[in-house]
Design brief:
By secondary structure, the protein is mainly beta. It contains 2 helices and 12 strands. Strand 9 and strand 10 form a beta hairpin. The N and C termini lie far apart (about 40 Å).
């Protein structure tokens, strides 16, 4: 089963082994619905989740002392793919978009999505083109089809978008 990165441990908190998490999801409250997570290849059971200044604070059942969790600082938190939340129609996780081939409606291959930026109102796909990177806004005006099974995104670029 695939593991999905959902957070980064940025620090410890208090003396009882809590960890301060930087959420790598759109929903910071996402951690409340989880019973277990992975750090590297080891599974841990979540005992408690609370929030402090919009940061999730996680306490594992396996640890009760700050000295036991110091080793986790700067490590990533992963979940099983089965623990993903349901998305609305035509919504995708970033990990699903990365690696897709981007083609125009005319069949011209533009490149592979290497990153997804979230600067504001909509995401922007960073496409590794043959000569340079292209920034494609993830809006219906440009994105005509996303086919995960076939591994591609079809776009209808406007003049200047790919220059």
């Amino acid at each position: 089963m695939n593991k999905i990165k959902v957070g980064k441990i940025i620090n410890t908190h208090g003396l009882k082994g809590e960890l301060k998490i930087l959420a790598l999801t759109d929903d910071e409250n996402r951690f409340e619905d989880l019973n277990e997570i992975y750090i590297e290849d080891t599974k841990y059971t979540i005992e408690k989740v609370r929030y402090k200044k919009n940061f999730p604070m996680i306490k594992f059942k396996e640890f009760s002392d700050i000295n036991e969790v110091l080793k986790f600082k700067d490590k990533y938190i992963y979940i099983d793919e089965k623990d993903l939340v349901e998305l609305e129609k035509d919504s995708y996780f970033i990990f699903q978009i990365k690696g897709l081939m981007v083609k125009t409606v005319d069949g011209l291959e533009i490149g592979i999505v290497k990153d997804v930026l979230s600067p504001g109102a909509n995401d922007v796909y960073v496409v590794d083109g043959k000569e340079k990177d292209h920034l494609i806004p993830a809006v219906k005006e440009f994105i005509k089809d996303i086919n995960l099974d076939e591994g591609h995104i079809i776009i209808k670029p406007i003049e200047g978008l790919l220059e």
